[in-house]
Design a protein that fits this description.
Number of domains: 1
CATH architecture: Orthogonal Bundle
CATH class: Mainly Alpha
Strand content: 5-15%
Largest sheet: 3 strands, antiparallel
Number of strands: 3
CATH topology: Arc Repressor Mutant, subunit A
Strand order of the largest sheet: 1-3-2
Number of helices: 5
Distance between the termini: 22 Å
CATH superfamily: Winged helix-like DNA-binding domain superfamily/Winged helix DNA-binding domain
Shape: globular
Order of helices and strands: HHEHHEEH
Radius of gyration: 17 Å
Structural class: mainly alpha
Length: 148
Protein backbone atom coordinates (compact mmCIF):
# COMPACT_ATOMS: atom_id res chain seq x y z
CA UNK A 1 0.00 0.00 0.00
CA UNK A 2 1.32 3.45 -0.92
CA UNK A 3 1.22 6.09 1.76
CA UNK A 4 0.49 9.75 1.04
CA UNK A 5 3.12 10.92 3.49
CA UNK A 6 5.72 13.33 2.15
CA UNK A 7 9.31 12.12 2.42
CA UNK A 8 10.54 15.69 2.16
CA UNK A 9 8.85 19.05 2.05
CA UNK A 10 9.90 22.65 1.59
CA UNK A 11 8.00 25.87 1.01
CA UNK A 12 9.78 28.75 -0.65
CA UNK A 13 8.44 32.29 -0.98
CA UNK A 14 9.88 35.40 -2.59
CA UNK A 15 9.61 38.78 -0.88
CA UNK A 16 10.82 42.28 -1.66
CA UNK A 17 14.53 43.07 -1.44
CA UNK A 18 15.84 43.47 2.12
CA UNK A 19 16.22 47.21 2.72
CA UNK A 20 17.02 48.64 6.15
CA UNK A 21 15.73 45.71 8.17
CA UNK A 22 16.88 44.86 11.67
CA UNK A 23 18.53 41.49 12.24
CA UNK A 24 15.32 40.08 13.74
CA UNK A 25 13.29 41.39 10.77
CA UNK A 26 15.76 39.72 8.38
CA UNK A 27 15.45 36.42 10.24
CA UNK A 28 11.67 36.78 10.18
CA UNK A 29 11.80 37.22 6.37
CA UNK A 30 13.99 34.13 6.13
CA UNK A 31 11.43 32.17 8.19
CA UNK A 32 8.60 33.50 6.02
CA UNK A 33 10.60 32.66 2.87
CA UNK A 34 11.09 29.07 4.07
CA UNK A 35 7.43 28.66 5.03
CA UNK A 36 8.31 28.34 8.73
CA UNK A 37 6.02 31.26 9.41
CA UNK A 38 2.82 32.47 7.77
CA UNK A 39 2.17 36.13 7.02
CA UNK A 40 0.39 37.74 9.95
CA UNK A 41 1.36 35.00 12.43
CA UNK A 42 1.48 36.41 15.93
CA UNK A 43 3.22 33.26 17.18
CA UNK A 44 6.64 33.84 15.71
CA UNK A 45 8.84 32.07 18.26
CA UNK A 46 10.59 30.21 15.44
CA UNK A 47 12.16 33.57 14.50
CA UNK A 48 13.60 33.91 18.00
CA UNK A 49 14.82 30.30 18.11
CA UNK A 50 16.65 30.78 14.82
CA UNK A 51 17.95 34.19 15.96
CA UNK A 52 19.39 32.63 19.15
CA UNK A 53 21.01 29.77 17.23
CA UNK A 54 22.56 32.14 14.67
CA UNK A 55 24.03 34.25 17.48
CA UNK A 56 25.37 31.12 19.23
CA UNK A 57 26.82 29.89 15.93
CA UNK A 58 28.92 33.05 15.64
CA UNK A 59 30.53 31.97 18.92
CA UNK A 60 30.70 28.29 17.85
CA UNK A 61 28.43 27.44 20.78
CA UNK A 62 25.89 24.63 21.03
CA UNK A 63 22.83 25.27 23.17
CA UNK A 64 20.54 22.98 25.13
CA UNK A 65 16.79 23.21 24.70
CA UNK A 66 16.53 24.91 28.10
CA UNK A 67 19.20 27.47 27.21
CA UNK A 68 17.38 28.22 23.96
CA UNK A 69 14.09 28.66 25.81
CA UNK A 70 15.63 31.04 28.38
CA UNK A 71 17.37 33.08 25.68
CA UNK A 72 14.12 33.25 23.66
CA UNK A 73 12.30 34.59 26.73
CA UNK A 74 15.00 37.23 27.25
CA UNK A 75 15.06 38.15 23.57
CA UNK A 76 11.28 38.53 23.40
CA UNK A 77 11.39 40.73 26.51
CA UNK A 78 14.08 42.93 24.96
CA UNK A 79 11.90 43.41 21.85
CA UNK A 80 8.81 43.93 24.05
CA UNK A 81 7.04 40.95 22.43
CA UNK A 82 4.37 38.79 24.02
CA UNK A 83 5.60 35.63 25.70
CA UNK A 84 3.52 33.39 23.41
CA UNK A 85 4.78 30.01 22.26
CA UNK A 86 7.57 29.61 24.80
CA UNK A 87 6.45 26.31 26.28
CA UNK A 88 9.09 23.57 26.15
CA UNK A 89 6.93 21.55 23.75
CA UNK A 90 6.74 24.46 21.31
CA UNK A 91 10.47 25.18 21.51
CA UNK A 92 11.08 21.47 20.69
CA UNK A 93 8.60 21.72 17.79
CA UNK A 94 10.36 24.76 16.35
CA UNK A 95 13.75 23.08 16.68
CA UNK A 96 12.41 20.05 14.82
CA UNK A 97 11.07 22.27 12.04
CA UNK A 98 14.49 23.93 11.71
CA UNK A 99 16.12 20.50 11.64
CA UNK A 100 13.66 19.26 9.02
CA UNK A 101 14.71 21.99 6.59
CA UNK A 102 18.38 21.25 7.27
CA UNK A 103 19.33 24.51 9.02
CA UNK A 104 19.83 23.09 12.52
CA UNK A 105 21.29 19.87 13.85
CA UNK A 106 21.17 18.12 17.19
CA UNK A 107 24.50 17.08 18.66
CA UNK A 108 23.95 14.80 21.62
CA UNK A 109 21.40 16.86 23.59
CA UNK A 110 22.37 20.27 22.23
CA UNK A 111 21.46 22.20 19.10
CA UNK A 112 23.42 24.31 16.66
CA UNK A 113 23.33 25.73 13.17
CA UNK A 114 24.68 22.90 11.00
CA UNK A 115 28.46 22.70 11.51
CA UNK A 116 28.39 26.39 12.58
CA UNK A 117 28.28 27.27 8.88
CA UNK A 118 26.91 30.54 7.53
CA UNK A 119 23.25 30.23 6.49
CA UNK A 120 24.19 31.16 2.91
CA UNK A 121 26.48 28.13 2.70
CA UNK A 122 23.91 25.80 4.28
CA UNK A 123 21.23 27.06 1.90
CA UNK A 124 23.42 26.62 -1.15
CA UNK A 125 24.86 23.20 -0.29
CA UNK A 126 22.10 21.48 1.66
CA UNK A 127 18.92 22.98 0.24
CA UNK A 128 19.60 24.47 -3.20
CA UNK A 129 21.99 21.75 -4.46
CA UNK A 130 20.72 18.70 -2.54
CA UNK A 131 17.20 18.98 -1.13
CA UNK A 132 15.39 20.84 -3.94
CA UNK A 133 16.83 18.79 -6.84
CA UNK A 134 15.67 15.56 -5.17
CA UNK A 135 12.15 16.92 -4.80
CA UNK A 136 12.09 18.19 -8.39
CA UNK A 137 13.36 14.86 -9.71
CA UNK A 138 10.60 12.95 -7.91
CA UNK A 139 7.95 15.33 -9.28
CA UNK A 140 9.33 14.70 -12.79
CA UNK A 141 9.07 10.94 -12.19
CA UNK A 142 5.37 11.32 -11.32
CA UNK A 143 4.78 13.45 -14.40
CA UNK A 144 6.58 10.95 -16.67
CA UNK A 145 4.58 8.10 -15.16
CA UNK A 146 1.36 10.02 -15.80
CA UNK A 147 2.33 10.68 -19.41
CA UNK A 148 2.99 6.98 -20.22
Amino acid sequence: MIKDSALAEITLRRYEKPYELTERELIKKICLSFGLLQEGDSRDVVVDVLFILIEASKLKKELSEEEIKNKVIDLRKSFKLEQKGIANSNIRRQLKRLRDILLVEKVSTDYRIIDFLPLSEIFENKIEKFFIPQILERIKEYIKELEK
